[in-house]
Amino acid sequence: MSTRKPQAGDGPAPLLGLLPSRGAPAPERADAARNRRKILDAAARIVAEKGPEAVTMNQVAHASGIGVGTVYRRFGDVSQLLWALLDDRERQFQEAFMSGPPPLGPGAPPGERLDAFLDALVDRVGEQREILLAAHSAAPRGRYTGGAYRVMHTHVALLLAQLRPGADGTLLAHLLLAPFSPDLVHHLTVDQDLSTDRLKAGVRDLLKLRS
Predict the structure, then answer these.
(1) For the domain that residue 42 is a member of, what is the CATH number?
(2) CA 42, CA 40: separation in Å to the nearest integer?
(3) Are 170 and 40 in contact (CB under 8 A)?
(4) Three-state DSSP string of 38-104
C-alpha cells in the first residue's frame, strides 16, 4: 500500500491514503508535540461541528491558539492536515484495542472485548464520518485495502476464532465489519437520525440472533 501523503492541488482521491496501518509516529520535542495536539484537536472540533469542507488553516490556527505560520509549517495545507487528523485518530483507536485497558484492550474475555470493540467502532466512524465518507465515495472498495481495515479485520477475526473455534473467522470478520461502512453509518445517523446508542444496541442484537 502506498504511504504517500496528499499534496497541494490533489483532488478527493488522496483521501484514500488517509487510512493508515499501525505504527509509531516520529519522535518530536515536547513543545512541538503539544502544539501538534492542539492543532489536531482544533481541527477535529471543526470537522465534528461543520464538516471537513469547513476546515481552513486560519480557522484551525484561531481555534487552537497556535500561529497560522506554525500550522502551515507543521502540516503544509488542509489536505495534509486532514490526513494527519485521520492518522492521529486511527492510531489512538488502534492503541486502545491492541494495548489499552480492558475490556477494549487485552485482559477481558473475547466476547467482552468484541462488544467493546464494536461499541468503540461506532464512535470512531461517527466521529469522523464526513472524512471517511469522502474517502469511501471516491473509491468504495478502497476501504478494504487500507491498512486500518486490515488491522481491524485481523483483530476481529482473532476474537471470533476464540469465541467460535472452527468457524470461518476470516469471513465472519468481514461480514461483522460490513455495517460500519461510512455510507451506511451516514444514512443511519443523518438520514434516519438514529443515535449512536441505538446503533450499538442494534449491533449487539444482531450478534445475538444466531447465538
Answers:
(1) 1.10.10.60
(2) 5
(3) no
(4) HHHHHHHHHHHHHCHHHCCHHHHHHHHCCCHHHHHHHHCCHHHHHHHHHHHHHHHHHHHHHHCCCCC
DSSP 192: S
Residues 105 and 152 in one domain: yes
Would you give the DSSP letter of residue 167? S
pTM of the full structure: 0.74
Host domain of residue 104: 100-211
DSSP sequence for 13-42 = GGGGGG-PPP-PPPP--HHHHHHHHHHHHH
Amino acid making up residue 23: G
Which amino acid type is present at position 183? D
User: Helix, strand, coil proportions of the chain in percent (round to 5)?
Assistant: 75, 0, 25
Task: Indicate the SS3 state at residue 171.
Answer: helix
* Average pLDDT over every residue of 195-201: 94
- 182 shares its domain with 204: yes
- The CA distances from residue 54 to 11, 17, 130, in Å, are 16, 20, 11
Provide the grid cell at 126.
Answer: 461517527
- Summarize pLDDT for 32-84 with one digit per residue, the tens: 889 999 999 999 899 888 888 888 999 999 999 999 999 999 998 888 888 78
